[in-house]
Each structure stands twice: as structure tokens, then as C-alpha cells.
Automatic annotation (TrEMBL):
A motif (DGA/G) lies at residues 75-77. Keywords: Lipid metabolism. This is PNPLA domain-containing protein. GO terms for biological process: lipid metabolic process. InterPro entries: Acyl_Trfase/lysoPLipase, PNPLA_dom, Teg/CotR/CapV-like. The keyword Lipid metabolism applies. It comes from Desulfotruncus arcticus DSM 17038. Gene3D superfamilies: Cytosolic phospholipase A2 catalytic domain.
């Protein structure tokens, strides 16, 4: 079902009852500015609070190759595939959340991880191997996307220590972004995942 059929056309971020932060990346500009990350939010005073939820959703999910860009913006995963660190920064920013770091607790919910590595010796690799090596496919792009997820997890855990919890299952194999036929299998993985430790963390820290 198209996202346009799920979201009210004129619902804005400012109309949402909870604070949100959504990542995207602007690739076009009519002025002298170059491309840059965009973080939509509805914090008081946010310049993006008037953006519609629909525009934000389409901008944040516009993965290159898979979907068209939206208003010159593409998938936020290009710069924040795991937006945990961005969320912490927004929470403590004096112009946004205004919270002390010691008051920030973060439950990070992933979409499943796949243990990936290159088995061959890469010492003599050139541009062709880094781009077109078959296992894993497109290794350089995989590193750019997946490496940032692990890095953000490390940064956030160092900042928050026990006030941070990562909830993320391990996938049995890589699943393509556009492989909708795997949705039932993903749902089954989620239903079988033991959320007991995460629930215990939430109960101890939030309730």
C-alpha cells in the first residue's frame, strides 16, 4: 500500500503528540550550499516542524536506485543508518531537547543484522574488486552503509553506558531492501525474538 494512502496529506510534524527526529540527506540546492544531512524534528523552535509527515516519510525512505528522490532529498540511511547518535545529540541540544546527558535513556531498535565479512585477502584489491567483488556483493557500498551502524552503536554506548540498550536480531542471511517476499519471514523472526532483557531494561529505566 502506498505511503500516501496511510498518512493524512496535511498532517505536519508539529501536529504529532510525541517528539520525533527523522533523518534524510539533501542532494540538490538552488543556492550555493552543497549537499548536506537533514534532520526533521518537531522540537519547539525546529525549522522543520511545518513539514508534512508525508513529505518527511518520503524523503527519509527514498533509497537511491530503489525509490525516486523526494524534494531533492534521499534516504537518511546515507548518513545515519543507525540514528542513535543523532537522537542523543538532539536530546541534549539547547535549541532542541535541552536535556542533560545524564537524563538521556535510549532504546535502539534495529531491523536485523547480518554478519558480513570478506573472506579473501584484500591487500592487492583495486577499484574493480572493491566495487564488484561478488561475496559480499558491492563490498565498498556495504561497508559504507553497514559500518556506520556499528560505529553509531559504539559511540552511543560509550556516551550513555548502561542508559543505552540495543534491541536487534541476527538475520540468517542477507535480505535485499526491496525483497518484499521476505516480510513473513522477518515477522516470524521478530515474533520469536526474546525481548525479555529489553523489557527488563525498559522497566528498570523508564517505569
Amino acid at each position: 500500500m502506498p505511503v500516501e494512502d496511510l498518512v493524512e496529506l496535511y498532517l505536519c510534524l508539529k501536529d504529532l503528540p510525541k517528539r520525533v527526529l527523522v533523518s534524510s540527506f539533501r542532494v540538490t540546492s538552488s543556492g550555493k550550499e552543497g549537499w548536506s544531512p537533514v534532520f526533521f524534528s518537531n522540537f519547539p523552535g525546529s525549522p522543520t516542524s511545518e513539514e508534512t509527515v508525508l513529505d518527511v516519510a518520503l524523503s527519509s525512505s527514498a533509497a537511491p536506485v530503489y525509490f525516486p528522490s523526494h524534494n531533492g532529498r534521499i534516504d537518511g540511511g546515507m548518513v545515519a543508518n543507525n540514528p542513535s547518535t543523532a537522537a542523543v545529540c538532539a536530546a541534549v541540544d539547547r535549541n532542541l531537547g535541552g536535556q542533560a546527558l545524564e537524563r538521556v535513556y535510549l532504546l535502539s531498535v534495529g531491523t536485523g543484522s547480518w554478519q558480513i565479512s570478506i573472506k579473501d585477502d584484500t591487500t592487492r584489491w583495486g577499484a574493480f574488486e572493491w566495487m564488484f567483488y561478488p561475496d559480499p556483493m558491492l563490498p565498498l557500498l556495504s561497508i559504507l552503509f553497514n559500518g556506520s551502524v556499528s560505529a553509531d552503536e559504539l559511540y552511543t554506548s560509550q556516551l550513555l553506558t548502561s542508559r543505552y540498550y540495543r534491541l536487534n536480531t541476527t538475520l540468517p542471511r542477507n535480505i535485499s531492501l526491496d525483497d518484499y517476499q521476505k516480510i513473513p519471514a522477518l515477522m516470524q523472526l521478530a515474533q520469536n525474538y526474546n525481548i525479555g532483557p529489553a523489557a527488563g531494561w525498559a522497566k528498570s529505566n523508564w517505569f
